[in-house]
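Sync notes, pocket subgroup
Present: LS, DG
LS reminded everyone that the earlier model was apo-only. Rerun requested with 4AD included. Inputs:
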Amino acid sequence: MMQKNRIINLLETKPSPIEISIKGWVRAFRSNRFISLNDGSTIKNLQCVVDFENFDENLLKKITVGAAIHVYGNLTESQGKGQKVEIQVSKVEVLGEADPEEVKLTIISPKRHSLEKLREEAHLRIRTNTFSAVMRTRSKLSFAVHKYFQENGFNYMHTPIITGSDAEGAGEMFRVSTLDQKNPPLDENGNIDYKKDFFEMETNLTVSGQLEGETYAMALGKIYTFGPTFRAENSNTSRHLAEFWMIEPEVAFNDLDQNMDLAEDFIKYVVNYAIENCADDLEFLENRLLQEEKSKPQAERSEMSLTEKLAFIGENNFKRVSYTEAIDILKNCKPNKKKKFKYLITEWGADLQSEHERFLVEKHFKCPVILFDYPADIKAFYMRLNDDGKTVRAMDVLFPGIGEIVGGAQREERYDVLIQKMRALDIDEKELDWYLDLRKFGTAVHSGFGLGFERLVQFVTGMGNIRDVIPYPRTPGNASF
Ligand code: 4AD
Ligand code: MG
């Protein structure tokens, strides 16, 4: 019932003499006769035909791009191509006018600089074809995430946003405090006394729900989180946000191989879901990308179209490669030998940068890659140590155009090994005693991973900058709206 008068449904309805009404925003008004109306339900517009002779001139003047209108009329067979029906308008009400000059500056797409400009125009950004297509796809992908996990027996867990622990041990956290910043209470050593703060301890916004997720997985068996995550890393790149959404499944008794199987199956499912349920928006985004690529030199254009790329993910196995094998490939590859990489790979143990990840995926294997068994030194403290004593059961899923889309691991379930590692890294045992306790009471092998939701949306929509796939991007210097 609620869906009845939305353009997505009207476009599939047969012509009829019965009067209907529809509300939306004007996308174009041509020849004082054809209004293209969009209501956000689909990328497609409904054509509304006005016999201008029968309408007040002053009213018609107010029908400008961006205005909100209420149209009455009946559906007739359309003469125009690309649409089966249109509305023969009997009455129009202008609900909200829009200044045509101001709109003109922003609603014109699809050039790259205008995407940046649009980030400053909160109200108009989502009225463009590009952003509405991206955000509808984002919404569908969110649903697919829940659908996948719910249908596979996972419990959705809400992990805390405010926490006292640094789950990644990387120190990239936003402090949460109600202390007077100008005049904070000090302890006997002259340091800020967080015992006097709201939570009587130092707290921050979460960088990951994993540690809390582990305790639930070790009782409920299978859990997943899907919520906002915060990182105070000063990375001004097209793949980093200070506030992003992460999906973190955690499964009791899964080892790393099963963890990789889960990640691959899950990603394939959500990508296929988008192919099946976002066809109109993806078609628009594919054409947008083709236009954008025309301005690039041939060598930089992608070999596959957006939909071919998405289909490829669903149809092909991800290549699983150990870190050690990957280092051998990278050490001997052309861009490394010719010193084309910014960070040259000289020895085992090097941390991989996005240029290396993308080389492996885009040039060497030409398919998504799962790298596993990384050096312990470059990975987080909670990953399970291998028998070689120097690598851990970590895995990263690397995607074309994106680089790392998933990071995960089999967790260190052995109390003694975990505590040794924490001591070596100077991680406060008291702060994580609850996490350590999990290893004392019915410990077992378990694994999980985190997928950056915006990186997934970026991949599916083909958008080049992560800021353009989240409604209100938070990045260094940007948080006002
Ligand atoms: O690799 P990360 O840091 O892993 C974790 O946080 C683990 N605790 C996950 C787990 O095992 N449960 O982050 C996971 C993913 C990355 O692969 C990336 O896709 C995304 O989160 N990510 C970001 N996305 C946008 N902006 C940022 N600043 C991101 N940092 C990480
Ligand atoms: Mg990572």
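DG: The CA atoms of residues 320 and 370 lie 5 Å apart.
LS: The chain has a mean pLDDT of 93.
Action: DG to write up.
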